[in-house]
Every structure is written in C-alpha cells, then in structure tokens.
Write a structure and sequence with these properties.
- The complex is a heterodimer of chains A (346) and B (304).
- Chain A contains twelve helices and twelve strands.
- Chain A folds into two domains: 124 residues, Up-down Bundle (Four Helix Bundle (Hemerythrin (Met), subunit A)); 191 residues, Rossmann fold (3-Layer(aba) Sandwich), CATH 3.40.50.
- In chain A, helix 2 packs antiparallel against helix 6 and helix 4 packs across helix 6.
- Chain B has 304 residues and is α/β, with parallel strands linked by helices.
- Chain B folds into two domains: 107 residues, Translation initiation factor eIF-2B, N-terminal domain (Four Helix Bundle (Hemerythrin (Met), subunit A), Up-down Bundle), CATH 1.20.120; 191 residues, 3-Layer(aba) Sandwich (Rossmann fold).
- Chain B has 13 helices and ten strands.
- In chain B, helix 1 crosses helix 2.
- The chains are: A alpha/beta (346), B alpha/beta (304).
- Chains A and B meet through helix 5 of A and helix 4, helix 5, strand 10 and helix 13 of B.
- Chain B: Keywords: Cytoplasm, Initiation factor, Protein biosynthesis.
- Chain B: This is Translation initiation factor eIF2B subunit alpha.
- Chain B: InterPro entries: eIF2B_alpha/beta/delta, elF-2B_alpha_N, IF-2B-related, IF_2B-like_C, NagB/RpiA_transferase-like.
Chain lengths: 346, 304
C-alpha cells in the first residue's frame, strides 16, 4: 500500500539524516559544508511536506517543528538546520495568509503600531484547510532550494567590487564561500593572499593549496603570526559558521584574534556569509559550552579545544551575502524578513 | 478648567496609589482613557485638543519622560483610530474598546521582558544595576525563580537613595545584594559580569534616558568591556533625538515642583541623564531583543 510505505520511507530518511548529522559532529563522518547541510535539510522538509499526513497548516507546522527539534538536538552546533526549518515555517505562514486572502506580510512582527491599532486577539491557529496549500508550499520550498544553490555564485559575483589589484588579503582556515570569492576576483585581478593555518585542524593548508592551483599567490602563516603580519594587510576576508542576531559571529577559533588584530590596525574586516547562516540566536554567556570539544590525549590533563569563537559586531566592517552588502547594525532587519518571531524558539 | 485639572491629577494619583507597581506611563494612559470616556466633545478635533490639555495637566504633576511618552502614544492612538472611523460616536466606542485592549497588553509587557532577559543571567553571575527599577526587579525575580544563583550590586543613587529601596526588595527575594556608592561604580566593575538597567525613556537613536548616574555606569562598562543591557517596555519609546546631555529638554531633567518654583534652573541638580546608543549592548523590550539601531525602526513604523 502506498500510504504506510511512504511513511516508513520518510521516517527512514529522517533517521538517516539525523544519524549523518550526529556523525558529522563528532568528527567521525565526512565533514560537510553548511551549504550541503542546508540543501539536504530543505530537501528533507520538502519531502515531509509532500509525504507526511497533514490536513491544515497548523498540523504541518507542528510536524516540522517536532522534526526540527530532533534535528537541532542531534547536532546543536550546526545552526543551518534550525535556520532552514524556520525559513520553511515562515513560508508556510505566508502561503497560509495568502490563501486566506489577507495581506499579512506587513503584520508579521510585533510592533508598537500593531499594539495600538489591532482590534482584538488574533486567532491565528492555522486550522483552516486549503487544497492549494500543499502545492504552493512545495513550490515555495523549491524556490528556496534554487536560492540556496545560487548563494555561493551570488557572493562571488561581488568580488570585483571589493578586491583591487596588488592588494594583500588575509583570511583564516578554509571557507568555501571565501574560496569562490577570491577565485572569482583572481580571474581579472592580481593580488596576494595570506592564509592563517588555523590549528589544530589546519584547514588553512587545504585552502592555500586550492587557491594556488587557481593561480593566486598564497602564503601560509601560523596563527601566532597574525598580529605581526597584519600591518602589511589591506583587507581581511573571512567566512563564518553562523551570523548571530546582534550582528556578531560564531566562527572558527582564531577569528576573534584576527578581528582584534584587524581592529587595532584599522583594517576592514569583511565577512562573506550567505543568508542561510543567519540565526535568530543572540550570544549568551552560556554559549561557551557549545563552543568546545574535548580531546583526551593524556589521562590527567584536560585539553580544552574550542572549535568556535564569538566575534562581537563592533569588530566587523561589512557582511557580503547573496543579497548584497550590509552593515552589522542592519542584521536585525534581515532577520525580521527571513524568520517569524514566534519561530525563534523551535 | 483648573478644577477639572485637579480632578484629573487626583485620578492619576489614585491610580498610582492603588497599584504602586504600575508604571507611571500606564497610569497616565489609564487616566487619559477615563478622561476620554467622560469627554462630552462634539468633534474629533475638539477631542484631540482636550486630550492635549489633559496630557499637559498630567506632565504638570509628574514631569518624567515616561508620562510624556505615554501621553504622546495615547494621542497617536487617537489619531490612528480616528482615521478609520469618521463618525464621532462610533469612533469613541472603538477607541474605548481598543484602549482597554491596549492597557491589557501593556500590563503584560514586564512579564514578556523578564522572560526574554532572564536567560542572559547565567548561574554565578554578578550583576550591577542602578537605582530602583521595577522592570529590573521583575527580571531578577524571574531569574531567582528559575533557581539561578547570582549576586547584585546596586548603586545608592542619590539624591533620593532609591537604590536602598531596590536593595530591600532584593533582600526579600533572598538575593545577596550590596549597596555601593555612586562613586564606586568604576571600582566595583572589575568584579561584575554584566550590567542591567531600566529606562525612563528610550529615544529615537536607541539611547536611553534614565536616572542620573546611568551614563557614567555605561561609560565605565564600555571601558571594562562588560555588556550593558537595558530593559524597558515598548511604551517608553519617545520621539526625541538628543545629541548630547544639553539636548535633553529641561522639563524632563527636573521634578515638576522644581520647575514651577525655582527661578534659576542652572543651580539645580538634574535627575536624569542621556546614555548614547554606542554604549548599549542590547535592549530587552516586549517587542523582542533589539539592538539600538532597531529602535528607530519601531518608532518610524508607529509615527510615520
């Protein structure tokens, strides 16, 4: 029977995805880039929309929220999963509002204006069934997938505006977005790149190899040399794991050092981050526990190996995303356009 | 008209007495709503005029920023509603209903703010706060209810020693609290993890107007690299854009009685100061956690 088969197939896929997420986090499985994770999450959510049993928007949102909670619990440091879930939830809300005929796009956020003029408690429980909702939501998710596929290219297209000839650019570790960005600029300009190796995983080495294969003059330096070399650098361009709601970053360890050195020398710090990395979380003091993985080399010594750094928004000059360049103080606005405030906590 | 003014002020005072926990802006809005109900005007323009007169009356009694912003918000509420309905009697009915709803919603604001802010207080934190703020008190209550252990430093906050009132209230919650001199803020900041203050008004630039001594505290926190958090309800947003301390209007700086009796204001001590947005890390409001740059967005949405 098609019914139960589809359901078991769906559950199997979800379980497989959760397993992969879990493995990827402990370092045992293949390291996947955030873009792939985002794409797979969205594809999985599309499958859930298509195959799971639901009759109204409220049901679908409940199902997605539940699966979402499980996915974020499997790998809390992979924030793109949560971000994609929130995007899809917002898509569902919008499609529902469109089906009902109300133009609710302006009404999404809580605002003083809304407080003053609303006529009553809104009974938005999303219970009304609409036949056209399923295909509309699936189409919107398809658009989201197309957007995801184009993000790296959109960012790389902006490279020529920011990189000029004979510049010295510094970066840290390995970021696929920054790699594409620099390679695109290298087609028309000649410049030097200095890569900080980013111990202990030393992904900077792979980045340097890849860049030099594209014909860019590259130098690898140790993390300790960042401050010393900074006086020669014109721009710092980095990627990040997550962009937080206050405009700060959660990036690979060593980035805060790099940012402070850049601030000291008044060197502009540019962050290349696609919009799916934007997360509604704000840095809290207790975040520190997420940032660590423990390496047990010796039995009596605890080695703390932070994987991520927090970079405050004051140290960042510009964010380059697939929809253009923004100042860190504008990030809250982009957040309100991408996610609904009720979905901030899944 | 003077008699009416006295009756209005009496109603306002009664509201404040009935519920000492109520924000002065909420009491002002409640008073204006009552005034609206009793008003016998025939035109909307007349209604606006009399409401403006009533607001002036109230600011004559309590000249704080909060009362002024509450009054302005209510006037804006009237304007927005009157645009939708042309007929006065229907308009008034809608206004009364919405007014009650609005009051209900803003009485929940402090709870919403506390829910957002208490997660930023981690176990073992040392908090510094300034003077007596009911919103900060509510946040700390919530954190204590969540079984977090933290200790608080409160500034004495002269000239009215409001900090001691705050310390008393915190002792009742079994929170270890130390009262420090206003001059000891720089001294104590190295021990502190975060600074949380309330606000009497949040201005358009994202800065705040609060009890005198707040600016000093903000400058010191910036120097020590400690996060400076502000907790405020959304009805405190006001359409002011001061560029420095002098720009803040005199009517907010001094108490209403002082303004009426004293000849030479330059010899009086101001009760409030302005803290620019560059010193504030985050604002916790019932509209969410905002960066200072997001505040002007909210005001634009409302007033333009």
């Amino acid at each position: 029977m098609p019914g139960p088969d589809k359901e078991t197939d769906l559950t199997e896929r979800i379980e497989a995805f959760l397993f992969d997420l879990n493995r990827g986090g402990s370092g045992a499985g293949p390291l996947r880039g955030s873009a792939e994770t985002a794409r797979e999450t969205t594809a999985l959510l599309r499958r859930i929309t298509a195959q799971a049993r639901w009759s109204s928007a409220g049901d679908l949102m409940e199902i997605i929220r539940n699966e979402g909670r499980r996915m974020t619990a499997a790998q809390p440091s992979e924030t793109t999963v949560g971000n994609m879930i929130r995007r899809v939830l917002k898509i569902i809300r919008e499609e529902y509002a469109r089906s009902r005929g109300s133009s609710e796009e302006a009404d999404q956020q809580e605002s003083l204006h809304k407080l003053l003029t609303s006529g009553g408690v809104s009974d938005e429980n999303f219970r009304q069934p609409f036949a056209a909702l399923k295909p509309n939501v699936i189409e919107a998710i398809n658009e989201l997938l197309t957007e995801l596929e184009g993000t790296t290219d959109n960012i790389a297209m902006q490279a020529l505006e920011h990189i000029h000839s004979n510049e010295v650019i510094m970066t840290i570790g390995r970021s696929r977005t920054v790699e594409a960005f620099l390679k695109d600029a290298a087609r028309k300009r000649k410049f030097h790149v200095i890569v900080a190796e980013c111990a202990p995983f030393c992904q900077g080495h792979e980045m340097a190899t890849s860049l030099s294969k594209a014909g860019i003059e590259t130098t690898v330096i140790t993390d300790a040399a960042i401050f010393a070399v900074m006086s020669r650098v014109n721009k710092v361009i980095i990627g990040t794991q997550t962009v937080l709601a206050n405009g700060g970053l959660r990036a690979v360890n060593g980035t805060h050092t790099l940012a402070l050195a850049a601030k000291h020398h008044s060197t502009p710090l540019i962050v290349c981050a696609p919009m799916f990395k934007l997360s509604p979380q704000v840095r809290r003091l207790s975040f520190l526990s997420d940032f660590y993985r423990y390496c047990e080399i010796l039995s009596k010594v605890n080695v703390h190996c932070p994987v991520f750094d927090y970079v405050p928004p004051e140290l960042i000059t510009l964010f380059i995303s697939n929809i253009g360049g923004h100042a860190p103080s504008y990030i809250y606005r982009l957040m309100s356009e991408l996610y609904h405030p009720e979905d901030h906590e899944l | 008209s003077d008699n009416d003014c006295l009756k209005l002020v009496e109603y306002f005072r009664a509201q404040m007495r009935k519920d000492p926990d109520m924000a002065s802006a909420v009491a002002a809005i409640r008073t204006l709503l009552e005034f609206l109900k009793r008003d016998k005007g025939e035109t909307i323009l007349g209604l606006r005029e009399s409401l403006k007169w009533a607001t002036d009356c109230l600011t004559g009694e309590d000249s704080s920023v909060a009362v002024s912003s509450g009054g302005e918000l209510f006037l804006r509420f009237i304007s927005l509603t009157s645009l939708e309905h042309q007929d006065l009697s229907r308009c008034k009915k809608v206004m009364e209903e919405r007014g009650e709803l609005f009051l209900e919603k803003i009485s929940m604001s402090r709870t919403k703010v506390a829910k957002l802010c208490h997660t930023f207080i981690k176990d073992g934190a040392k908090i510094l706060t300034h003077s007596y703020s009911r919103v900060v008190l509510r946040v700390l209550e919530k954190a204590a209810a969540e079984k977090k252990r933290f200790s608080v430093y409160v500034t004495e906050s002269q000239p009215d020693s409001a900090g001691r009132q705050m310390a008393e209230a915190l002792r009742k919650l079994n929170v270890p609290v130390t009262v420090v001199l206003d001059a000891a803020v720089g001294y104590v900041l190295e021990k502190v993890d975060l600074v949380i203050v309330g606000a009497e008004g949040v201005v358009e630039s994202g800065g705040i107007i609060n009890k005198i001594g707040t600016y000093q505290m903000a400058v010191c926190s910036k120097a020590h690299n400690k996060p400076f958090y502000v907790v405020a309800e959304s009805f405190k947003f006001v359409r002011l854009y001061p560029l420095n301390q002098q720009d803040v209007p005199d009517k907010f700086k001094y108490k209403a009685d002082t303004l009426k009796t004293v000849q030479n204001l330059s010899e009086e001590h101001p009760m409030i100061d302005y803290t620019p947005p560059s010193l504030i890390t985050l604002l916790f409001t019932d509209l969410g956690v905002l960066t200072p740059s997001a505040v002007s967005d909210e005001l634009i949405k409302l007033y333009l």
